[in-house]
Amino acid sequence: xxxxxxxxxxxxxxxxxxxxxxxxxxxxxxxxxxxxxxxxxxxxxxxxxxxxxxxxxxxxxxxxxxxxxxxxxxxxxxxxxxxxxxxxxxxxxxxxxxxxxxxxxxxxxxxxxxxxxxxxxxxxxxxxxxxxxxxxxxxxxxxxxxxxxxxxxxxxxxxx
Length: 160
Known about the structure:
This protein is of the alpha+beta class. Helix content is 40%, strand content 14%. The protein contains five helices and five strands; from the N terminus they run H-H-H-H-E-E-E-E-H-E. It has helices spanning 6-21, 27-38, 45-54, 61-73, 115-127; strands at 77-81, 87-91, 99-103, 109-112, 138-141.
């Protein structure tokens, strides 16, 4: 017997959260969850909405935004605010702790994990007599590649 996949665990967690909150179990919520856990990495609400419409699903923007709030509330999705009103999401169940390097020109996000950061977080906690429980690090950077494969000709990150 194989352990349950992150998607299977996410479905169970959503079932439990919906039952606890006394909410309806709608197919749209589960289709959104499946798309996030099966097909998407970093995304915003509009990208998710277009993705679902492209798959032939009839789902409103309001449902996407409300479901993202619900999934964030129950810990299945993580919300990142990258400044200038630019918000991205990613699935959180079954993911290792990682940080982000964000290109402010093209919006490309590079995930990374540096074991030294764990030591830094612990030493900062000790310095201020606190016990760190989690951290988020986003490094905002400018691309130095003249022919960046991620750069979009029409929009800079600040315009998104």
